[in-house]
Specification:
seven-stranded mixed β-sheet; alpha+beta; 4 helices; single chain; Aminopeptidase
Amino acid sequence: MELKPEEFAQKYLSQMEIRAPKTEIEWEEYYTLRYKILRATLDQPLGSERNDGDKTGQHFALFSEGRIAAIARLDQAEDGISQVRFVAVDNAIRGKGFGRLIMEATEKASIEQGNHKMVLQARDYSVDFYLRLDYTLLEKTHLLFGVIQHYKMEKVY
């Protein structure tokens, strides 16, 4: 019997940890996953997965069975508003609830920091995922690398 995504994530929750990467190897795995999911498929060069916000943002990595399965970065957009960026789940385990878990961790941190709203730029193929997490679609925004349409979304706590 196959487990539903939320059952899968809950069953393996005791084997998971969400935290920032600590070692050089973990940071390399973090940026490798970010590149593989968010940049390589768009024929972007290695290094394009990093930006200046990496120095100030709060990084989240979901470790499962000793490897990074999902990632995200939380930025302070403005007073009371945070922004989640670079959300990625390893293709091999997509649809198993790991994306929900990493988003719940960023939202919890955002609330703990005193924010009342989270904003994000969703790729066209991710809009439904964020709608299921109670985000509201606000507007069509930019076309990333001339290829991937993005949409501004928000969630008020």
